[in-house]
Specification:
Layout lengths: L14 H18 L8 H16 L5 E6 L15 E2 L6 E10 L1 H6 L5 E8 L11 E7 L13 H12 L7 E5 L5 H9 L3 E5 L3 H9 L7 E7 H14 L2 E6 L4 H9 L8 E2 H4 L6 E6 L10 E3 L2 E10 L4 E10 L5
Parallel strand pairs: 1-3, 6-7, 6-8
Antiparallel strand pairs: 1-2, 3-4, 4-11, 5-8, 5-9, 9-10, 11-13, 12-13, 13-14
Helix pairs in contact: 1-2, 6-7
GO biological process, one term: gluconeogenesis
Cofactor: Mn(2+)
Keywords: Carbohydrate metabolism, Hydrolase, Manganese, Metal-binding
Length: 328
């Protein structure tokens, strides 16, 4: 991977960097695997963070963590502003979530993944001072058709028309939280069905943007870090994403304003990640609709990962077998 004459510019990630970054999410998922179903999400997250940090330290790039993970849940963290990589090579922004779905991992439930996103240095929105974001994600059919400011029923009907589907066939993913009770009611009142997620709205957003899934739209309030990570993936998929920051109180709202964030503002994809040169990798921790989880098969541990690149618009799946004796 090389950089151009402009320090802020970055050539598209080459295959070697892609494989190195996938190794980091693979390592995080494998280290979390012994904690699946053990009821200790902090232990699972800590193991994943340590593994991801160790692998990233060997990669030829100068990464800065713009969107880290941990403060919201008082968990172990790859902290915001931390430099990762060996310092050689291109300057990048990094968004990481060693486990998107720590509660899912602890409970042994589906759809926990280890994720990472990369873009040109200085292009990721630093939304770390506000923990939550209201999001709307669809595939490319939603571009110019839906808008987060419109009622959910109107958006569902418009997207159904654009996709050539009956509203009754539409499936809307939303986190199963008390705060979404009215939203869920409105989705169903519109005639659509819901796909309630216990956790892990990165996978929910990506599935809403992929053409071969049964999810048509992902909506609702989830983590701001997950919103940035999702935006990197959506750019590679040609999909649609909007977000509005949702501070939990006046203090958090003011903290966001002081950090230069806009409240009550609709952030479009290019506001969330101001680059068309994004890179997203995810490895399954537990089985899910996006990727299979970590599995022990005799002497090997099998992982499944997905790699998305906006520059080429490709989706690659990587299945790898790792000698268990090297890991456990």
């Amino acid at each position: 991977m090389t950089i151009t004459d402009s320090p802020a510019s970055l050539q598209h990630p080459d295959r070697n960097l892609a494989l190195e970054l996938v190794r980091a999410t693979e390592a995080a998922a494998i280290r979390a695997w012994p904690w699946i179903g053990k009821g200790d999400k902090l232990a699972a997250d800590g193991a994943a963070v340590d593994a991801m940090r160790a692998l990233l330290g060997t990669v030829d790039f100068d990464g800065v963590v713009v969107i880290g993970e941990g403060e919201k849940d008082k968990a172990p963290m790859l902290f915001n502003g931390e430099h990762v990589g060996n310092g050689n090579g291109p300057a990048c922004d990094i968004a990481v979530d060693p486990i998107d779905g720590t509660s899912l991992t602890a409970a042994g439930r589906p759809n926990a993944i280890s994720v990472m996103a990369v873009s040109d240095r200085g292009t990721m929105l630093d939304a770390s001072s506000v923990f939550y974001m209201d999001k709307l994600v669809t595939g490319p059919e939603g571009i110019g058709v839906v808008d987060i400011r419109k009622p959910i029923g109107e958006n569902i009907r418009a997207l159904a028309k654009a996709k050539g589907k009956d509203v009754s066939e539409m499936k809307i993913a939303v986190l199963d939280r008390p705060r979404h009770a009215q939203l869920i009611e409105e989705i169903r009142a519109a005639g659509a069905g819901t796909r309630l997620m216990l956790d892990g709205d990165v996978a929910g957003g990506i599935n809403a943007a992929r053409y071969e899934t049964r999810t048509d739209m992902c909506v609702g309030i989830g983590g701001s870090p997950e919103g940035i990570v999702t935006a990197c993936a959506i750019k590679a998929l040609g999909g649609f994403i909007q977000g509005i920051l949702r501070p939990g109180n006046d203090e958090e709202r003011q903290r966001g304003i002081d950090a230069g964030l806009l409240m009550d503002h609709v952030y479009e994809a290019n506001d969330l990640v101001a680059s068309d040169n994004t890179f997203f990798v995810a490895t399954g921790v537990t089985d899910g609709g996006l990727v299979n989880g970590v599995r022990r098969k005799g002497p090997v541990i099998r992982t499944e990962s997905v790699v998305l690149r906006s520059h080429s618009g490709t989706i690659r799946r990587i299945v790898a077998d790792h000698l268990a004796e090297k890991w456990l």
